[in-house]
Amino acid sequence: MAVIAGQQGIDLREPKGWRRTSNRIATFLMVLAFVLVIIPLGFVLFTVIAKGASIISWQFLTGQPIPPNVEPAGVGGLWPAVLGTIEITALATLFAVPLGILGAVYLNEYGGRGWLAALIGFMSDVMTGVPSIVMGLFIFSIWVLHFGYSGLAGAFALGCLMLPVVIRSTDEMLKLVPNSLREGSYALGATKARVTVTVVLPAAIGGIVSGALLAVARAAGETAPLLFTILTVTTANPNVFSGPTTSLPSQIFSNATQPYTGAQDRAWGAALTLIAICFILMIAARIVTARFSRYSR
Amino acid sequence: MEQPEQETVTNLPRTETATQEVPMPEPAALRRPDAAAQEPGPEDRVFETDKISIYYGSFRAVTDVTLSIYQNEITAFIGPSGCGKTTVLRTLNRMNDLIPGAHVEGDVRYRGASLYGKDVSPIAVRRRIGMVFQKPNPFPKSIYDNVAYGPRINGEHNKKKLDEIVEQSLRGAALWDEVKDRLGKSGLGLSGGQAQRLCIARTLAVEPDVVLMDEPCSALDPIATGRIEDLMQEIKSKYTIVIVTHNMQQATRVSDRTAFYSVLVNPESDTRTGVLVEYGRTQQIFEDPHDSRTQSYVTGRMG
Fold it and tell me: How far apart are alpha carbons A141 and A139 in whole angstroms?
């Protein structure tokens, strides 16, 4: 071993004792926590890919109708569910993301410490805790009972779920924008709206998009709120505004609970498709965000 | 004609030490032949404050500030930390409006008009009275867009004109040669001194009447500081500049007039209130201060 100790007993090694031990324990615990987090994620991905990859084909993604449960894999396709998921999630995003961002802008830039802002912030937090099935029942009672099942109703339910998530994440991102940027803009004679649109939002856009995406991904995978709002059908309904439709989570739910292997295979295929859609969405949003925030470093 | 040298706050008690002579070496920068050549008249007053007090909520941060700031001069605010220099500065372009609970008592006049009048828009005020902050705060935009930001929000969208303004402002801030080949790059990629000059260019781009500077060099090295001080001298023929500084050498180097602020501590409530102790020609403040507190401060015996 090399001698590290130098003149007059100078020793530059980390001192032995509790400090070194506690450092190692903490490092070990952090690595352990990371591994524990990654294990279930890895298993889920592995299982879904292993069981779903062989099912997926062009026919599976674009064919229709969704066959009866007793049919073996390879008959028909899941196009109605793919289309439904894309339509409903897109519509829900259209409702929730602009509204959520505007809400957060109000909370942060305009509401200040007023009672209205405090109330909205609190209610939004409460809304995060509402179970998704309750949100579905809510839309069922105020919309579906009067206008019938439709992709639109499903989008309302998903939008209600996304809204508080978008508000909270955007709010946190806006809080991170340094006040010095706002002051710099004000000092040039900008109005509050200008400051918000031209300085605050661009500075926070990366985080806002990330937060919105998490909300979208969560909504895309929701089953419960759709049970009472879109019904579940086997043929594609291109009209998102009227008539029952279906979605990937609904199909996973109805197929996975069947005793027939063909249906189970379709459920695995649908699961993999759903994960792939979310994955593509995430990557696309990252690229868009990188373009927006290319001046932030 | 009024003698602005005598604008010291007279209602504050002077102590005996004020009369004791302390020999002070005369800084070279103070030997300016034109120092007392022409006294500005009342028509050259850009700002006049009349016994203003500034509050944050119920807390009185600064009290009893009376001073006049003259056109095409550089006025320095000096004093120990917490004495309200920055607070007074931010009052001059209504920046304090952004802090909830902040308000001003007393009259602040800008070129004869009451700055805190009923129909006065802080937006319009800030378009004429720009501000450079202690920490360089370039926007997360390109260098070009940083400078063009002000003209754009004022409705200038002509590409050719904007190009012209950007070049002129960057030249004015002595930054053009360093950044002319990377105008499209992020303003956040500049060094501290460059970023601060970018912020000055951004302020000059809206062609303000007054530039307020809040310790603009406190985060910069001596070379960058020197550049900014040179810059202030160059632009003072076009603008009126008010600068807050902790650096007394800087005050003597750049300013025509100096206001010395201090803190009054109320031992009963343990509150600290800033007061304007003395205001006059920089040379007079540093060589012949009338108030003992000013003398202690400028000779380095206090704060």
Answer: 5
A156: number of Cβ within 10 Å: 25
The per-residue pLDDT for B32 is 46
Cross-chain CB nearest to B188 (options A112, A113, A295): A295
Shortest alpha-carbon distance between residue B136 and chain A (Å): 9
Distance in angstroms (rounded) separating the CA atoms of residues A130 and A11: 59
The answer for residues whose C-beta is within 8 angstroms of residue A154's C-beta and 6 or more apart is A84, A88, A92, A225, A226, A229, A230, A245, A247
Q: Confirm if B10 and B276 have CB atoms less than 8 A apart.
A: no
Tell me the shortest Cα–Cα distance from A55 to chain B, in angstroms: 47
Judge: B199–A189 Cβ closer than 8 Å, yes or no: no
Report the C-alpha gap between A74 and A59 in whole angstroms.
8
Q: Are A217 and A51 in contact (CB under 8 A)?
A: no
Asked whether the beta carbons of residue A295 and residue B93 sit closer than 8 angstroms, the reply is no
Q: What is the pLDDT of residues B116-130, one digit of tens each?
A: 988 899 999 999 999
Interface test with B, best of A295, A296, A297 (most B CBs within 10 A): A295
- With CA atoms as reference, the chain B residue closest to A111 would be B100
The interface pTM score, or ipTM, of the predicted complex is: 0.81
Give the residue extent of every domain in chain A. Answer: 87-292
What is the side-by-side order of every strand in the sheet holding B74-78? B113-114, B102-110, B45-56, B59-70, B271-281, B257-266, B74-78, B240-244, B210-214, B129-132
Whether B131 has its CB under 8 Å from any CB of chain A: the answer is yes
Cβ count within 10 A of residue B147:
32
Residue A14 three-state SS: coil
A241-276: pLDDT as tens digits: 888 888 899 889 888 888 888 888 889 999 999 999
Q: How far is CA A66 from CA A56, A57, A152, A241, in A?
A: 14, 14, 21, 21
Q: Of all helices (H) and strands (E), which one includes residue A222?
A: none
DSSP state of B154: T
Residues of A in contact with B150 (CB under 8 A): 188-189
Q: What is the residue whose two structure tokens read 């200040």?
A: A112
Report in angstroms the alpha-carbon separations of A21 from A13, A24, A119, B155: 14, 5, 48, 63
Residues of chain A with pLDDT under 50: none
Q: CA angle, corner B76, sides to B75 and B78, nearest 5?
A: 155
CB contact under 8 A, A190 and B123: yes
For B137, the closest of A112, A180, A202 (CB atoms) is A180
pLDDT of residue A2: 55
**B31 SS3 class:** coil
Interface list for chain A against chain B, based on CB atoms closer than 8 Å: 112-113, 178, 180-191, 194, 198-199, 202-203, 293-297
Name the superfamily (CATH) of residues A87-292.
MetI-like (1.10.3720.10)
The pLDDT of residue A6: 63
Residue A154's pLDDT is: 92
